[in-house]
Amino acid sequence: MALMTGKKVAIFGIANKRSIAWGIAQALHREGARLALNFQNERMEEPVRKLAADLPQDTWLGPCDVTVPGDIERYFERLGAEFGPLDGLVHSIAFARREELGGDFVDTSWDGYQLAQQVSAWSLIGLCRGALPLMAGRNASVICLSYYGAEKVVPNYNVMGVAKASLEANTRYLASDLGPKGVRVNAISAGPIKTLSAMGVADFNSILDTMAQKAPLRRNVDQADVGNAAMFLLSPLARGITGQTIYVDAGYSIMGV
Ligand SMILES: NC(=O)c1ccc[n+]([C@@H]2O[C@H](COP(=O)([O-])OP(=O)(O)OC[C@H]3O[C@@H](n4cnc5c(N)ncnc54)[C@H](O)[C@@H]3O)[C@@H](O)[C@H]2O)c1
Fold first, then answer.
1. What are the pLDDT tens digits along the chain (257 aa)?
2. Where are the domains of the chain?
3. Which of the residues 75, 148, 157, 252 is marked catalytic?
């Protein structure tokens, strides 16, 4: 039997076929999970619908922009009525304005700082709160996507590095809060991957090159590497793991010099 047979997972953050969330969706689908997806706004509905057509027909889709008041609550209310309880939740969303992802960190604006925190870190709390009534009592698992810039300075990552530090701390606090309710919460710290969001970081290609040269495995990771690790953390095989940040980075983060 496949690892996720009979499990239902909601995935937030598919924009296109390069999205890390799409790699996760494919791994979960392969292992038998039934999926619910979101699209951020009307403009993104069609591309997400087209991708969802590659999944079974009973894949559920609904709108949710985490900055729109009431969107998270509306999403889970409809999901509960039309899709039923949840065994897993994937948070694969982040945003910072392009002008905050380059130049001097000292120039970070309050608006830009708040927006990056709201979309990229606070939203994990909002989504967990919204999903909790659907996850309670099911040994459910939540994952989110972080990056090494949370703990070390990565050129141009700037305000997003601070948001990822918050996201990793949120992971620990939520794991402590939700553990007694049977819900696990973990983060994956993924190596750099060329996606729509990543291309917003100034000089991203040089981050990719450095990683491929210095990582013990001498390569970059891809969406399938992250998708498989995410599937493991969402599956019952990881039932003893919570509150952790797991690296899927070809080993880059262990290197000193
Ligand atoms: N690509 C990388 O190098 C890399 C490395 C480590 C971690 N990550 C993280 O992986 C996650 C997915 O990013 P990706 O690289 O696949 O890029 P992506 O652009 O494909 O996905 C980002 C997603 O965030 C969603 N999003 C942005 N603002 C939103 C909002 N207000 N409400 C709802 N959704 C919103 C977008 O719709 C999009 O689907 C992010 O958390 C990112 O920081 C990426």
1. 799 999 999 999 999 999 999 999 999 999 999 999 999 999 999 999 999 999 888 899 999 999 999 999 999 999 999 999 999 999 999 999 999 999 999 999 999 999 999 999 999 999 999 999 999 899 999 999 999 999 999 999 999 999 999 999 999 999 999 999 999 999 999 999 999 999 999 899 999 999 999 999 999 999 999 999 999 999 999 999 999 999 999 999 999 98
2. 8-249
3. 157
* Ligand 1 atom nearest to 119, measured from its CA: 31
Q: What is the residue whose two structure tokens read 């606070």?
A: 122
Ligand 1 atom at shortest distance from the alpha carbon of 204:
3
CATH of domain 8-249: 3.40.50.720
- Report the distance separating Cα 23 and Cα 122, nearest Å: 23
- What strands, in cross-sheet order, belong to the sheet with 88-91? 60-63, 34-39, 8-12, 88-91, 141-146, 184-190, 245-248
- Model pTM? 0.98
